[in-house]
Specification:
The chain is of the alpha/beta class. Helices cover 41% and strands 15% of the residues. Strands 1, 2, 3, 4, 5, 6, 7, 8 and 9 form a nine-stranded mixed beta sheet that branches. A hairpin with a 2-residue loop joins β6 and β7. The chain starts with a helix and ends in a 12-residue tail after the last helix. The mean pLDDT is 96.
């Protein structure tokens, strides 16, 4: 009987294997493009996308691997994440770092935060978030992805909303094959197999930061480890802040 380790290919989702997968794409002559690039100029093109869901720190590691190999991706950040605060200084600096590595920055839009049920509302709140995001991060984002798709979101298939490219548009769905690691396993086809398929010349790849780790772990373990690492970071921030401002840090016994 096949176990989950084999069934969901846990060993695929290490950062070492991530680098291997990128090398396969390069070897098979895929050009890594941004969504606003003219993909028709290229025989084989790939849109490599990251929806930053849990850990900007892991996203930065992935961005550095890509930069080392000379490829670019698009990183979509949320303004309403339950797992990170993009306005926190250390996290916002990661956005700037990823941008400085030559990657594109996009908006990972959470329609559920606003309870959006119409395309007019979608236009309205996308505009608000674009203006805010651009003003904070000194950028001019041109593309967005939806967070946690549902029936309504998947029906929004226009090429653009609020002048932002919609990665879920019918345009991309009709031209590009799709491969995603959502919730920590290959939701459709295994990415390595897709990259070796000679019939596929246009490909959109979706990855998520905490679905990748240094060691072989289950998807749940990968996410929990990223959460625990961030909790430790915040605890250390508290302790170091009290030291910096020469304040007492009082526990049951130790005062420092």
């Amino acid at each position: 009987m096949i176990n989950n380790i084999e069934k969901y290919r846990f060993s695929d989702f290490t950062l070492d294997n991530y680098k291997k997968i990128l090398k396969i794409a390069i070897k098979n002559d895929f050009s890594f493009l941004a969504y606003q690039d003219d993909f028709l100029k290229f025989e084989k093109s790939i849109l490599w996308r990251h929806d930053v869901e849990f850990s900007p720190f892991i996203a930065l590691k992935m961005a550095k691997i890509e930069n080392e190999l000379g490829v670019k991706a698009t990183y979509f950040f949320q303004l309403h994440s339950e797992f990170y605060n993009v306005l926190e200084k250390e996290i916002s600096e990661i956005v700037f770092q990823i941008k400085s590595l030559g990657h594109e920055i996009g908006l990972h839009f959470d329609s559920h935060f606003f309870n959006i049920i119409s395309e007019n509302e979608l236009e309205k709140y996308l505009t608000v978030e674009k203006i805010y995001f651009d003003s904070i991060f000194k950028t001019n984002i041109e593309v967005f992805s939806f967070h946690n798709t549902n029936e309504f979101i998947l029906s929004c298939e226009k090429n653009k909303y609020a002048e932002l490219i919609n990665v879920y548009s019918s345009f991309y769905k009709s031209i590009f094959s799709y491969c995603a690691d959502s919730t920590g396993f290959w939701r459709y086809d295994r990415l390595e197999d897709v990259l070796y398929n000679p019939q596929i010349t246009k490909l959109q790849v979706l990855t998520h930061d905490a679905m990748w780790s240094y060691d072989i772990q289950s998807p749940r373990q990968r996410v929990f480890i990223s959460i625990e690492e961030n909790a430790l970071r915040v605890k250390n921030f508290y302790d170091n802040a009290l030291i910096k401002f020469k304040a007492k840090n009082i526990d049951w016994e130790k005062i420092y």
